[in-house]
Fold:
Amino acid sequence: MSEFIHAKSIKNNEVRFSDALFYNFLRLITVLIIILFASVFVFLYRSSEPLFLEQGWSFFKETTWSPTTDTYGVLAFVYGTLVSSFIALLFAVPVSMGSALFLTQLCPRFLVSPIRSIIELLAAIPSVVYGLWGIFVLAPFIKNYVQPVLSGLTPGLPFFQGPPFGLGLFTAGLILAIMIIPTITTISIEIFQAVPKLYKEGAKALGATDWEAIKIAVIKPGMAGVLAAITLGLGRAMGETMAVTMVIGNRADISSSLFSPAATMASVIANEYAEAGSNLHSASLTAVGFTLLLISMLVNFGARYIIKKFRGPI
Amino acid sequence: MKSPYNLTEQSFNRKLKNKFMKFIFAFLTVLALIPLFIIFLHVIKSGINAINYDFITQLPAPAGQPGGGIANAILGSITMVALAAIIAVPLGVLGGTYLSEYKGGKLSSVFRFVVDLMTSIPSIIVGLYIYSVIVLPMKGFSAYAGALALALLMFPIVVKSTEEILKLLPTNIREAGLALGIPRWRVIVSIILRGSVPGITTGVLLAIARVSGETAPLLFTAFGNQFWANSLNQPTSSLTVQIYTYAISPFQEWHEQAWGAAFILLLTIFIFNLVARWLLLRNKNEYM
Amino acid sequence: MNKDSKSNILIIDQLTAGFGKSEIVKKISMQVTEKEITALIGPSGCGKSTFLRCLNRLHEETPDAWVHGKVNLNNKNIYEKGTDPVFVRSQIGMVFQKPNPFPSMSIYDNVAAGLTIRGIKKKTYIAEAVERSLIQAALWTEVKDKLKSAGTSLSGGQQQRLCIARALAISPPVILMDEPTSALDPISTAKIEELLHQLKKEVTIVIVTHNMQQAARVSDQTAFFLLGELIEMDSTKKFFTNPKDPRSENYITGRFG
Structure:
């Protein structure tokens, strides 16, 4: 051993010095990144400050967004973001749960990995391509087939009424659903795989059918994890920008019809920021961004909290 | 004790429900697969017509006129993604190394937390941030700004994948190195990192594929340009922003070109994904 | 294999089973007497657990698994074409090596699970069945005041008795036990062994154990497995005092396994 060190002529304190240098170099990078991250909040706040100085907290209570009269309220966008994301969850959750359960519990083994790869490839399609497809394929389809049928079926309900544009909350929600299916499915697959097999065997030994065994020995124990997966999917849907901007119609309105044009926090920034005329307008858009950032962080914390708190047996 | 219920025979109801639920799960899986095929086929069908020699070598034609190409957008995308990778890959690999090799400290747990949160920042917010720290002080849109925005999105992905890959290496490799009297940093650089190159490459390729498709962070950092950008200091066109601009324009010719650009983009991203997966499969045996 | 007045509830005929290309259980035939405890012993890897899992058709749940041969429960072959494994498993309960009460279910719900999945809603009936099963499983006095707490909050031994109660709740004539005490401490093990003596008045038990002393203590019949074959089966007393096969003798005296 000593020969080895001698041959390399590395003295003990040289080793210690080089090690400390490397370690502190890594720590320096780490600290810089943490500062960078904190600065995102600082810069966004500073850039939106003119609005808060001018308008105060009314920004969070105001539904009108009118750059021409310099009135800026975030609520219409919060509404658009929440409704489009919830429509997305409405479609994506059953599909993702079904796929995850099928792939982990029922699917013949040779099919599992091809199907999984295809679902994961959905996540690789860029947002802007989803948007392109949404404008030219999905929106006309919704306009010509889906809305007429739905509004015909429910004459009394306001949700499906209004002139058929094709572009609106419903179309945006549907595109978002396709985009978050891979997120929720992949995490749910991991959750269901982590549930120990012995619970399912226990249920089978009690004379449970496949479905009953899945219900009590896979879904129930995995519920908290699935909830976290759904929350992460929600976070992804709320921050999604391009596809939504392209199909939601971009109008700062709160309308009871799901087929009417709307705007989300992300879409209004994408749509107006480059052309923001006044200082106040761009400050307001940054404030919208700041709000979106805070909500995204909150949803992310929510998912972590669920995982930590209800982790339970798995 | 005799039960008043029949506990042994499976009632018709239970059988039916079992069959029904199994069918539903299979059906939902098919439903999840359909969009990929529809979108992919549509992009191929509409995109392939737009592609010709001019399309990949020429500048865009003036609005509403036929012909022209997206050569500047292709070059802009390649430049910015490459620049982003040059910035984000070394930093990300070092960050992942720190998390994997020096765990346990307070700083590393804060760092891990921050990296997790970074992955959940909406990409449009990254654009806003770069706008206020780079574009405003430099008084203009530029390829630099676009690349930095992409780098910021790439960094946490590379950190995460590097950490995962390094964690797969057994501890005794590290101990064997240290026992030979090699300094720790040499063990990390020459044994751990070098041994994980294929795995790290997979992560990097996936990160590149991921940011190649980003549009929102480029909108007001690189902005866009109908002409060649003469330097990295100028507004720069990109495939994704070009698709967006063309798609929302009123011109039929541009719509067709948007599909052509989408085809090229999708093809590139899928190739990156396939190569990454292939690398992972090829090296799986080394790790597991 | 002499049997007296009691009838044979399970008659196994030429049972062969395995996974993919490997054959784990080789042409086993045996009879299990009603309301007795039959112990299956043998060195690990001898196929006794796989054999046990064939008796309630749980073996086939594993990918690549296959079975040939007959298992007659009350003179009806459970492997007959058209026989529903769900039907078989409601006649033949099972307790596993590791206690597996359903997580995120209370003690009460765990015991009631076999009834609730069958769509039984009548609360008084379920409550009676839960109480009866917990009393039978000698757990009632310990848990009657905390029926709503999680099944997983109990100690290992209690969890295993909870699983026994869960199996008892649907009153199966036969219960299979796959090394039910191997994960437990000696005191919990003793409690379960004592419980087995009580239970055999009402149910037939087939128990796999790697512990010869346990087989000698609790069982009426003992079957010795080696490399997937049934070497010898006899009344426990005879088997341990006067084994016929030299391999059995070697095993009992600890010369291998």
User: Anything to note?
Assistant: Residues 58-310 of chain A form a domain with the MetI-like fold fold (CATH 1.10.3720.10). Chain A touches chain B through 89 residues (CB under 8 Å). The first strand of chain A starts at residue 65 and ends at 66.
